[in-house]
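Section 5.1 Outputs to date
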Amino acid sequence: MKAETEEAAEEPFVIRPYLKSELAHLYNPYVPLVYAMRKMREWIRNNNELYDAMYSGGEGKNDHAYSARQVRLIVKYLDEP
């Protein structure tokens, strides 16, 4: 019963620009940040459709943040964190 109450209290995921580290940590909250970021990059790199869609816009691979457009794509292919 307590877990249900805690889940209901969670805020919904918002599509907005995120630092790469912030979004990676949302998807992998129980691992150190460096491993969370590595896992996130791996997921994106291994999904060719997602990878192509993410970097077909003006955003670069070396940017420190994902744009709202990229976050929307990540959620489309990987679901919400």
